Amino acid sequence: MSSSAPPEVNAAPAGKPDDGGGGGLDRGVLAVAMVVVLGAIMSILDVTVVHIAVPALSQEFGAPLSQIQWVATGYTLALATVIPVTGWAASRFGTKRLYMISLGLFVIGSALAGMAWSVESLIAFRVLQGLGGGMIMPAGMTILTQKAGPQRVGQVMSVVGIPMLLGPISGPILGGWLVDDVSWRWIFYINVPVGVFSLFLAWRILDRDRPQPGERLDLLGLLLLSPGLAALIYGLATGAEKGAFDSAEVIGFTAVGAVLVAGFVVRALRAEVPLIDLRLFKRRSVAAASGTMVLFGLAFFGAMFLMPMYYQVVRGESAFHTGLLLIPQGLGAMLTMPVGGKLTDKIGPGRVVLAGLVFIVAGMIGFTTQMDVDTSKAVLGVALFVMGLGMGMTMMPTMSAAMQSLGHDEVPRASTALNIIQQVAGSIGTAAISVILTNELADRMPGGGGGGLGATAEVPPEVMAQLAPKMAESFSATFWWAIALLALAFVPALLLPRHRPENKVEVMPLH
Questions:
Q1: Which of 93, 253, 319, 399 is most buried, taking the most CB atoms under 10 A from its CB?
Q2: Residue closest to 42 by CA, chosen among 163, 156, 131
Q3: With a threshold of 0.90, does the pTM exceed it?
């Protein structure tokens, strides 16, 4: 087994599956999954932990929330910048080496962030974290997908989905505890021992693969896409921060980002070896999965931005208690994700994803009809649980739909593209939902809601009691926009494969 081979042994390439059959995941695949999941949990958990610590960081450095928010946004910008180069880097340096480099950058960035002496240094070190964190997930997914083979890609995606569950469940709780009872610095320091342990496991367990240095980096494509994504996300994030998109700064960055991304699309369709092979999207399964993921990401991640704010602002819950109240969503996903993976391998992802979308819509409708200042937390918990059931049957089966039709050498490119889509859709969805909520509040609050939600911290309790019902109405109305976006996701989801993948071990890349 690869888990016992020393790293200097020229083991079988990481992309060669142990078992091309449709059985369960064997010991070798599970060992690789453990390595990948550890790294993914660390990078995803870091995002939710930092979000809960933003007020404490603002107080620590004496910085306004508008500035300290870039501790989170800078990380996202770094992710968007580095993800496009992951596919080329995997071919050039090998997936094992790239994965270990990514972990190393993330650990170094975490240690430096914990030692930050100013808000500027903290943002800079968070960017370094993002440069490593952006490659952890796509590189890990590539290693695991190639190890398991196409017949077990659904089960593999379920394993990779574990971090998606633990982040929303554990992040706010862990972050609240560390900030309140230990120190804000430990939200970064905690990554160091976990990261070092992950590096050791990767060195010992992952198969040594052979780089393919003959492939050249599409430098022009990189210069178009990475700055384009960064400018686009910066513009959207700044627009969300200001509550409007009509300022010259927001319009300028968003427009430049859109033009650069459009230029990349033209370049990618013409280049012989593009940074991301957009020709893969000519395949129905890949295109349908991408469309589903875009609309799902816009709606779902945008909606998940609302719930913590509702609990803390409208209901007056602490960050720690808010994390506890969000647990039902993770529990629901934890129940259906393994089942969804197995069903994907047996009957195809199409039916599974459609069922998942139905569950998510049902849960969101519960928010639009029940969200008030005194709504039972049990009722809201049930709605979150139902949404979690849908999440477990939607996210990873959608990824599986794209991967099932790809050959061995196409997986890294597709993994990179799908991770970019997921990151960008989530960022745009959060920004859009933020603006919608701001407008809904402005329509209902006295004085147009000037100052936004942050201003409510200084409002006397008796005044807040009068404002809370209007604020709850604003949250409820915003959820209807998320439902509308999610309803559109049914269109591409109807085009996803509704059959199990072909019984094949490896497919040569198509030219």
A1: 399
A2: 163
A3: no
